[in-house]
């Protein structure tokens, strides 16, 4: 059975993700050790919290170099969830911090037109419009609904990287795909059946 390694760098909701992968019959491993990344067939980069702190944790733990070698060097598929996806970008306004720079994109805070109507952070269910075919969204509805919890979002310069878009006052990328790099702004582990189906698709890559 292929090994899915969920990266523990002190910023993720690991229990829910671990539970969901086990539910679909996968064999997930939670690890903070760079050596475990070298043997992983797939990686999951979760994240809840501050962008700058997350990048510092990755660098100080030695995980950043190990992840880059696996993903960019060996082509290991990776799924970034919420903050985990944001870390793929070049830069974030949150902490004025550099990211992994895997995508030609930046992270900005929501600038809504009506703060009374559009609360920041966005919390709750919202739909995603799928923009291209992908193994990650195979057999999902064209506009599936997922659970979101975020104050910052991606601004992507390369439209071909955008897998899905969501509207919260205005449109923003809510899923990305570039070769073996997959990312979602929402939480599939909290999105019931449709989220479970997406994780099953990732496990089957």
Distance between the termini: 13 Å
What's the rounded overall pLDDT mean? 96
Rg to the nearest angstrom?
16 Å
CATH domain class: Alpha Beta
Percent helix range: 25-40%
Number of discrete helical segments: 6
How many beta-strand elements?
A: 14
Structure report:
The protein has a single domain (3-203), classed as Rossmann fold, CATH 3.40.50. The chain contains six helices and 14 strands. The protein is α/β, with parallel strands linked by helices and 205 residues long. It has helices at 14-23, 34-37, 51-61, 63-74, 83-86, 192-203, and strands spanning 3-7, 27-31, 42-45, 78-81, 91-92, 97-98, 105-109, 122-127, 129-130, 145-150, 152-156, 162-168, 170-178, 181-184. Helices cover 26% and strands 32% of the residues. The model has no long low-confidence stretch (mean pLDDT 96). Strand 13 (170-178) and strand 14 form a beta hairpin. The longest helix has 12 residues, at 63-74. It has an eight-stranded mixed β-sheet with strand order 2-1-3-4-14-13-12-9, sandwiched between helices. It has a four-stranded mixed β-sheet with strand order 6-5-7-11, covered by helices on one side. A two-stranded antiparallel ribbon has the order 8-10.
């Amino acid at each position: 059975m292929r090994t899915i390694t969920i990266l523990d760098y002190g910023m993720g909701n690991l229990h829910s993700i671990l539970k969901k992968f086990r539910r679909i019959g996968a064999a997930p491993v939670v690890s903070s050790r760079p050596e475990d990344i070298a043997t992983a067939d797939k990686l999951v980069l979760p994240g809840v919290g501050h962008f700058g702190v997350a990048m510092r944790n990755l660098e100080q733990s030695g995980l950043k170099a190990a992840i880059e070698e696996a993903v960019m060097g060996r082509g290991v598929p990776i799924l970034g969830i919420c903050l985990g996806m944001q870390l793929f970008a070049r830069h974030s306004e949150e902490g004025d911090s550099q990211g992994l720079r895997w995508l030609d994109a930046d992270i900005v805070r929501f600038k809504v037109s009506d703060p009374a109507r559009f609360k920041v952070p966005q919390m709750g269910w919202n739909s995603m419009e799928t923009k291209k075919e992908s193994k990650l969204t195979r057999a999902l509805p064209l506009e599936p609904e997922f659970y979101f919890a975020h104050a910052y979002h991606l601004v992507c310069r390369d439209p071909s990287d955008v897998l899905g878009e969501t509207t919260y006052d205005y449109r923003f990328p809510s899923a990305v795909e570039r070769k073996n790099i997959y990312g979602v702004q929402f939480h599939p582990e909290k999105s019931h059946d449709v989220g479970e189906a997406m994780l099953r698709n990732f496990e089957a890559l």
